[in-house]
C-alpha cells in the first residue's frame, strides 16, 4: 500500500492532487486542520500490481472490484470526506478478502462492520432521554417510541423538562392522555431524579423530553448537560436526516460528549440525501435503532439495518 500526505489551503486542490498523483482508486485515510489553517490530507493506494510472493515472483492480480458505482452513490448523498473514505476503504478490503462481486453485498457487509445497531425497547436501561437540535423532531420521536411501547404492552411514563415551549408540552400531554400513559412536566431538575425513580418502581419505560438546543452554543449545552447529569440513562440524539453532513458530525460529537450513545434519524422519508446519517454513523460510532419515516404516530418509525441503508443508497 502506498500512503502519501498532502497539505494545501483548499480541499478541492487537495483532492485534485490526490487524483493526479495516486489516481482514481486512492482512498482518503484522514483529514485534519493544521495550526496555520491549512488542511492536511492523508491518502492511500493499494498497490495490487506490485504484490510479490515469497518466491520473488509477482502474484497474479485477482482483485476485479471497481468501486466507481459506490463512489457515485455515496457522492450523491454528500457524505463527509472522512466518512466516504472509511466506507470505500472497507468496501475494497471486503471485496479483496471475500471476493464479493455485487456492490450491494459489499456495501451491506461494510455497514455491518462499521455501524452499530440496537433496540430502543431493550429495557436493560428503561430510561430514555431524547436530546437534539431545535426542530430535529425530539418530541414527535418520543411519542412514536411511546406508541410502539404501548403496542408491545410496555408500561410507559413520559416526563418533559422542556420549559421553553408551552405549546409543545400541551401537545405532549394530549398524546399521553390518548395513550393512557403517565405524564409529568418537571421545572426543577432536583425533582427529576425522584420522579424517574418513582416511575421505575413500577417497571415502566421512562421517556424524557428535553428542550431543543443549539449544539454550537455553549450556554445551551451547559443547560442540557445539567439535565443529563441528573440520572444515568440512554441518551438518544434526534438527527434531521437532511442536515448538512459536516454540521451533523460536529453536532453529534458535541452531544456524544454529554453521554449520548444513540442516533435516531428523523424525516428520512423526505430526505433525498442522507449523508448526515451515514457520516455520523461511520465516524461517531453511535448506535442506530429506528428512524422516523412519516407523520403517522403509530407507524412512523422503521427499524434501521444495513440492508435497508444499502437499498436507500443504491436503488
From TrEMBL:
User: Where is the protein localized?
Assistant: Cell membrane
Q: In what residue span(s) does the SRP54-type proteins GTP-binding domain sit?
A: 125-315
Q: Work out whether the entry's keyword set contains Nucleotide-binding.
A: yes
The UniProt entry lists membrane topology as: Peripheral membrane protein
Q: Which GO molecular function entries does the Swiss-Prot or TrEMBL record give?
A: GTP binding; GTPase activity; signal recognition particle binding
Which Gene3D superfamilies is this protein grouped with? P-loop containing nucleotide triphosphate hydrolases
Which GO BP terms apply?
Answer: SRP-dependent cotranslational protein targeting to membrane
Q: Which UniProt keywords apply?
A: Cell projection, Cilium, Flagellum, GTP-binding, Membrane, Nucleotide-binding
Primary location group = membrane
Q: Which InterPro entries match?
A: P-loop_NTPase, SRP54_GTPase_dom
Cellular component terms, GO, for this chain's entry? plasma membrane
> Which family does the UniProt entry place this protein in?
Belongs to the GTP-binding SRP family.
What name appears for this protein in its UniProt entry? Flagellar biosynthesis regulator FlhF
Amino acid at each position: 500500500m502506498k500512503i502519501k500526505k498532502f497539505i494545501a489551503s483548499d480541499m478541492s486542490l487537495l483532492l485534485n492532487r490526490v487524483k493526479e498523483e495516486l489516481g482514481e482508486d486512492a482512498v482518503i485515510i484522514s483529514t485534519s486542520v493544521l495550526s496555520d489553517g491549512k488542511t492536511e490530507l492523508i491518502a492511500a493506494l493499494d498497490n495490487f500490481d506490485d504484490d510479490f510472493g515469497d518466491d520473488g515472483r509477482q502474484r497474479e492480480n485477482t482483485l476485479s472490484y471497481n468501486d466507481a458505482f459506490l463512489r457515485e452513490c455515496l457522492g450523491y448523498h454528500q457524505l463527509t470526506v472522512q466518512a466516504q473514505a472509511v466506507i470505500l476503504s472497507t468496501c475494497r478490503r471486503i471485496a479483496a478478502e471475500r471476493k464479493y462481486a455485487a456492490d450491494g453485498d459489499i456495501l451491506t457487509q461494510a455497514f455491518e462492520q462499521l455501524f452499530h445497531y440496537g433496540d430502543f425497547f431493550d429495557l436493560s436501561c428503561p430510561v430514555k432521554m431524547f436530546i437534539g437540535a431545535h426542530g430535529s423532531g425530539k418530541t414527535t420521536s418520543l411519542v412514536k417510541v411511546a406508541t410502539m411501547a404501548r403496542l408491545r404492552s410496555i408500561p410507559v411514563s413520559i416526563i418533559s423538562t422542556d420549559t421553553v415551549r408551552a405549546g409543545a408540552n400541551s401537545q405532549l400531554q394530549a398524546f399521553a392522555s390518548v395513550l393512557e400513559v403517565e405524564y409529568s412536566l418537571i421545572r426543577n431538575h432536583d425533582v427529576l431524579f425522584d420522579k424517574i425513580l418513582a416511575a421505575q418502581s413500577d417497571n415502566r419505560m421512562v421517556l424524557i423530553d428535553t428542550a431543543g438546543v443549539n449544539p454550537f452554543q455553549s450556554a445551551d449545552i451547559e443547560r442540557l448537560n445539567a439535565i443529563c447529569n441528573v440520572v444515568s440513562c440512554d441518551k438518544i440524539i434526534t438527527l434531521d436526516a437532511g442536515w448538512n453532513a459536516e454540521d451533523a458530525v460536529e453536532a453529534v460529537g458535541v452531544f456524544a460528549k454529554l453521554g449520548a450513545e444513540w442516533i435516531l434519524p428523523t424525516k428520512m422519508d423526505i430526505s433525498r440525501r442522507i449523508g448526515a446519517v451515514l457520516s455520523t454513523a461511520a465516524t461517531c460510532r453511535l448506535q442506530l435503532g429506528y428512524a422516523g419515516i412519516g407523520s403517522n404516530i403509530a407507524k412512523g418509525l422503521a427499524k434501521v439495518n444495513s440492508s435497508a441503508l444499502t437499498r436507500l443508497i443504491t436503488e
